[in-house]
Write a structure and sequence with these properties.
Order of helices and strands: HHEHEEHEEEHH
Radius of gyration: 18 Å
Oligomer: single chain
Strand content: 15-25%
Low-confidence stretches: none
Largest sheet: 6 strands, mixed
Number of strands: 6
């Protein structure tokens, strides 16, 4: 980490700091990662959540678009901001990596949260290596259900949310607005797991 970054955030450049293990805001993003994300507003003293989201291709004319709707994103951003946490969502940033957010992933019939092989293929081929460990990866797809899985390195950073016409999310949603509300609720639920809220602890 260059001296200029240390000066900016109040570190003494003449004192060695273990930036690879320092995380003063306890958001899971260490100082080395905060430095890498400096162009994305990363602040080592401000809790941040970075998300990349992709969608699954539609299957038929009755299938809903599998996207993280902007309104649902805004609900997530506002909910976390109430607690002083910034959320940044890449659903297709103009200057993002080649395999950044907003991709339409090939349809897969079977997805599960135990083996995670199908989701692992998305994670491996559509989620940039430099983002792993910093971003959370959310796939919106057509298969019913929702889960979080540790597809690699035992990090629970990958989530799948289904929003097909028969899914549990949309069955009770009778309007486009309610579809977005239910999607936001499902994402918020899985994000809770990604920050450690698990049934066996809470």
């Amino acid at each position: 980490i260059p001296t200029s970054w240390e000066w900016k955030w109040g570190y003494d450049p003449f004192v060695w700091n273990d930036h690879q293990n320092l995380d003063p805001d306890i958001d899971g993003i260490d100082n080395m990662e905060e430095y890498k994300m400096r162009e994305r507003f990363a602040d080592p003293y401000q809790q941040d959540i970075y998300i990349e989201t992709d969608g699954m291709e539609q299957q038929g004319i009755l299938d809903l678009p599998h996207v993280f709707y902007k309104e649902a994103q805004q609900m997530i951003i506002e909910r976390f901001s109430e607690h002083g946490i910034n959320v940044y969502i890449d659903d297709g940033w103009d200057d993002g990596p080649v395999n950044g957010g907003g991709e339409m992933l090939p349809f897969q019939q079977n997805l599960d949260d135990t083996l995670g092989k199908q989701v692992l293929s998305y994670y491996t081929h559509h989620f940039a290596d430099e983002r792993k460990g910093i971003f959370r990866y959310i796939v919106i797809g057509s298969i019913d259900g929702g889960f979080i899985t540790a597809v690699n390195y035992n990090k629970y950073d990958t989530m799948y949310i289904g929003n097909n016409i028969r899914s549990s999310i949309t069955r009770i949603a009778f309007t486009p607005r309610e579809v977005r509300v239910q999607l936001a609720k499902a994402v918020l639920h899985e994000l809770g797991h990604s920050i450690g809220l698990m049934p066996w602890t809470f």
